[in-house]
């Protein structure tokens, strides 16, 4: 028995490629077959159409779906794309502003114990339920929720921003904030202390050091964080569904509706290429700015 | 170099942002004990009643049970496929090695809606009816990478000479695995598994496309939120879900103190960004 086992391991030891192949085939085959296969079929189907009478998929090559998405005579879909991109940009900016001082405090001021504590406090919300965190904001922003109670308490008029673009902006900024903190923190932590000392020795003021040393070195981290906040917002449909009002659809909502209720998969696939192309362009720019070295 | 005022300002800012992150979660905790079934603030009184109601609700039970089953099977698949890939990538240098990492990371690099939509049309196309298994396939695509990253990080900090020494001393492959590899990897596997379970248990976007008429716990919450029904039950379930996802993540964090969940989240994020870059260049 032991002998057979030894022989068995010897086979693997002598022919490492054999072991490599045995280890690699199942995961790679599963991913290629199911995942990559599915993606390929999906993007090819963007060039197909659906028969409006029978609802059946027709395998005729055309670019009609893209023509509808980018139509300027009926800009419904361009407007939705614009809203999605605009809010994604606003969320990214907000998260950068919220995250930078916090990351700076963690990286350069806090003692190790405090740093670990803040790290955990920032990261646990990221792992706790995404849906529940969105729901919490519905409770806060509703007419008789915490926000209006607090405003009333200090004598300010009520705000009715539940179910508006403002609500989406707040909720997205809230949900993705930890994704911005992590890379900015990593970038700031990596700045050697003697750079700052050198800058001071050469007569730079605190502000000058901040502007000429810290910001340029932290920028790749901010860009890296923005990849997440921007991309996650672009692809979301749950937040608009739960806290957006009427007429606050995102690209994701149009896609979702075209898969489920009145299925038009080719159109959904065509519209879904918009965020993918935007992200591709964004990543090329991010690479120029050195975001990938910052991660 | 920072002045006292700057330090003070930064400290205040940090406290405020942490409060911003936590107050909504605390609020969920309070609303779960709301004695009224109207969701207004401040709550009129306290009760434990809704936990009992939620626990005895048949829809909550069946969706919880489905989520737990799907989570466990997904975790199993993610552990097997993720560690196989990590071993292969760690030990062997071969053509297309980078594209394997890229392949595993793709499902978290692309928006969930694209993964969900692609799998949905694939299942329809292949004539597979939507079942718990299609949910598992959907979840496994993005959970494999969590285990993969944890195991790979651990392997990279383990010297291969340990294995050679074990073989030189006469151990066979199984013994080497049992007495050398396993003790080194065990906590990384447990941590990866816990994270995979937490991810699966909480997932909603891909699930809506692969579940059909089935209801997992997040879908139960989403459906009721959209229809504006059963808010007291949702509050109780929401608190339970927060606790249930935070516990495994905290345990995983303790098990991988050296690399840590924090680092592995950051590493996953980094890998995702890198891999997306590969496609664009």
Describe the structure.
The complex is a heterodimer of chains A (295) and B (281). Chain A has 295 residues and is mainly alpha-helical. Chain A has 2 domains: 2-45, no CATH class; 75-288, MetI-like fold (Orthogonal Bundle), CATH 1.10.3720.10. Chain A is built from 13 helices and 2 strands. Chain A has a two-stranded antiparallel ribbon. In chain A, a hairpin with a 6-residue loop joins strand 1 (49-50) and strand 2 (57-58). Helix content of chain B is 80%, strand content 0%. Chain B is mostly helical. Chain B is globular and about 70 Å long. Mean pLDDT of chain B is 83; it is low at 272-281. Chain B has one domain (52-280): Orthogonal Bundle (MetI-like fold).
Provide key terms for this protein:
heterodimer, A: 295 residues, mainly alpha, MetI-like fold, 2 domains, two-stranded antiparallel ribbon, 13 helices, 2 strands, globular, B: 281 residues, 12 helices, 80% helix
CATH 2nd-level architecture of the largest domain in chain A: Orthogonal Bundle
Mean pLDDT metric of chain A: 85
- Regions of chain B with pLDDT < 50 over 5+ consecutive residues? 272-281
* Cα gyration radius of chain B (Å): 22 Å
User: What is the CATH T-level topology of chain B?
Assistant: MetI-like fold
Helical percent range of chain A?
A: over 70%
The major β-sheet of chain B equals: none
